[in-house]
Amino acid sequence: MTFPFWSLVAEHREAGLVVGVLIGVGFGFVLERAGFGRAQKLAAQFYGTDMTVFKVMFSAIVTAMLGMVLFAGLGLVDFKAVADNAVSSTWLWPMVAGGFALGVGFIVSGYCPGTSLVAAASGKVDGMVAVVGVVAGQVIWTGIEHLPAISRLQNASDLGHLYLWELLHLPPRAGPAIVAVAVTAMAVGCFLGAEKLERIFSRAAPPAAPRPRRLVFTGLAASALVGLGLGLVPVGTSAVAAAPQAIGPEALAERVLDQPWKVRVLDLRAREACAARRVPGAECVPAAELGKLGLADANGTRELVLVGEGTLQALPAAAAAYPGAVRVLEGGFPAWEAFALRAPEPPPAGASPAERERYRLRAGIAAALTGVKAAPPPPMPSGDAAPKKKAGGGGCGG
Amino acid sequence: MERNPDAFWNPYLAGVALGLVLLGSFLVMGNGLGASGASLRMGVAAVGAVAPSVVEGAPGLARAWNGGHPFDFWLSFEVLGVLLGGFIGAYTSGRLRLETLSAPGYPRARRLLLALLGGLIMGAAARVSRGCTSGQALSGGALLSVGSWAFMFSVFGGGYAAAWLVRREWR
Predict the structure, then answer these.
(1) Looking at chain A from residue 75 to 94, which residues have their Cβ under 8 Å from any Cβ of chain B?
(2) Measuring CA to CA, how many Å separate A243 from each of A73, A139, A246, A250, B94?
(3) Testing the interface with A: which of B1, B41, B129 to mutate, by most A Cβ within 10 A?
(4) Of A8, A266, A316, A383, which sits most exposed with the smallest number of CB within 10 A?
(5) With an 8 Å Cβ cutoff, is A48 touching chain B?
(6) How far apart are CA A248 and CA A15, in angstroms?
């Protein structure tokens, strides 16, 4: 897979942050030009007079969706891998309830969280106030969400990563393309309906712009059909035998330290090498013994990370059978060693808090790996069915 | 460029442009757009700087606090970009003006109070639904997540349900 560039969230993190700014600039600029920095224009959506919000949102969704389907059809990107990374799992009822509340907040404040930023940046005082409200609302809710009643509500109906094509029992490769065609057709139908509503609710007919509209509709329809064709046609081995998804050492370090109960690290190197030095919490499982773990029967709630001598080019069959996400450490253990053993340069006196924080994190990892004992955070009970291998040695809780 | 504050892009073309930005984000970063995620980190950082004991007392806040500094977080940079992009867009279109928007003649103080109230509701709601209109509806919708589509229809439902109550604010 050519895309995405996972290294931008790992070893080329700084470059990734710059890309983040650029993408944000595009996002903010387009929202502003669409008129989303103006509360009345956004609110008009809910009085039927101006359906700009609906039109912009749905054509954006359809465009990005079709783009992903096309790139996936050409074997350049794994649709589901990006989706699993970019979108949260489905908590059905919390999302329905949260969506309803967010809609109420939208019409009351005149903005959604994203557009309030654009309004604030264009000098709208109500936008700035809404931004303050969004931040405060999140902090307050996060402060109370551990209370049993709220936490029960918020974590109800966890369906994991669930996609429309799975709901319809469509095959994983053609599924997104088939659903995309249906969504595109539905969107175009809704656009025409929305224009009809606009003509009914605002007596002064909005200036019709048939040319861009026809252009966009034709483009979307054509892309949908090409995407469907690519999705249905069987492609060469390059796209089918997908290279395993990689994870960089820094991203792995973050996971191991922040949410150790969400990952299970398996070190596939020789037992002696692993016993001497390993990723904190890793289980030493030489590749030949992988079958004994019963990974296919595990419940798959934790992400599996495989550590090899170098980047593993193909997943061992036993690991590929794991029902949850499986990733391989990019560069294998040597990359981890280089990242975690290279003692970081202490930040200069005037360093920003971010730099100091980064230094602290890296120094902590280096200290833990070079021998200074640091207890790993307590693992949460996860109910993984597989028996655990005790690796022995300090700091390895498994 | 002609500066006309009332001229906007054709909604379908604007939508396609927005979709291409989103697609670029998927393809380059493997991540979608977001607005609410970064603000939590910033808010927690602000609270933590003033009253660390509050952050330590609430597990959710402590988790966000320990999750890292807001400026070591991709979404924070993306949000910085959104502000910059919004500013550039407003400046070049002649819409950069210090003002408060509402229906003509609507009391300014009441409008600001409602903006704050709506923001508070949205902040809490974005936590419950694990994302807002950008992260959930746009990004998740384009990637065909079931929860994102349920969320999106709900947002429109909530908006239409409450529209009558605040109609004087807008009409």
Answers:
(1) 77, 79, 81-83, 85-92, 94
(2) 16, 40, 9, 20, 49
(3) B129
(4) A383
(5) no
(6) 14
Q: Find the radius of gyration of the CA atoms of chain B.
A: 18
Task: Give the type of residue at B104.
Answer: P
Instruction: Determine the structural domain holding residue B53 and report its residue range.
Output: 1-98
> So what's the ipTM on this one?
0.95
CA distance A146 to A154: 10
What CATH superfamily classification does A245-369 receive?
Answer: Rhodanese-like domain (3.40.250.10)
B38 to chain A: which residues are within 8 Å by CB? none
Same domain, B63 and B91: yes
In chain A, residues 238-297 whose CB comes closer than 8 Å to chain B: 254, 258
**Does B163 contact chain A (CB < 8 Å)?**
yes
**Interface membership of A158 toward B (CB under 8 Å):** no
Q: Which distant-in-sequence residues (6+ apart) come within 8 Å of B83 by Cβ?
A: A24, A28, A117, A118, A120, A121
CB contact under 8 A, B126 and A102: yes
**Residue A117 to residue B96, Cβ atoms within 8 A:** no
**What's the pLDDT at A379?**
53
Q: Between B81, B82, B170, which is nearest A40 by CB?
A: B170
The model's confidence at residue B19, banded by pLDDT at 50, 70 and 90, is very high
Buried (b) or exposed (e) across B137-150, using 16+ Cβ within 10 A? bbbbbbbbbbbbbb
Q: pLDDT digits over A221-277, tens only?
A: 999 999 998 888 865 444 444 567 888 888 888 888 778 888 889 888 888 888 888
Residues of chain A with pLDDT under 70: 1, 203-209, 234-243, 368-398
* B53 shares a domain with B69: yes
Q: How many structural domains does chain B have?
A: 2
- Answer with the one of B98, B131, B146 that is the final residue of a domain: B98
Residue B78's nearest CA partner among B32, B127, B20 is B32
Both B90 and B25 in one domain: the answer is: yes
> CA angle, corner A334, sides to A333 and A339, nearest 5?
95
Residues B53, B128 share a domain: no
Whether residue B113 sits in one domain with residue B94: no
Cross-chain Cβ contact A121/B90 below 8 Å: yes
Q: Which amino acid is at A210?
A: P
Which chain B positions have a beta carbon within 8 Å of A6's beta carbon? 30
pTM score > 0.80 for this model? no
Does residue B170 sit in the same domain as residue B107? Answer: yes
CB atoms inside a 10 Å sphere around CB A389: 15
A103 close contact with B: CB closer than 8 A: yes
Provide the chain A residues 162-201 that lie in CB contact (below 8 A) with chain B: 162-167, 176, 179-180, 183, 191
Are B43 and B24 in the same domain? yes
Cβ–Cβ of A138/B39 closer than 8 Å? yes
| Each residue's pLDDT tens digit, B131-170 | 988 889 999 999 999 999 999 999 999 999 999 999 999 9
Domain shared by B9 and B59, yes or no: yes
Where does a domain end: B74, B98, B122? B98
Query: Domain map of chain A by residue range?
Result: 6-238, 245-369
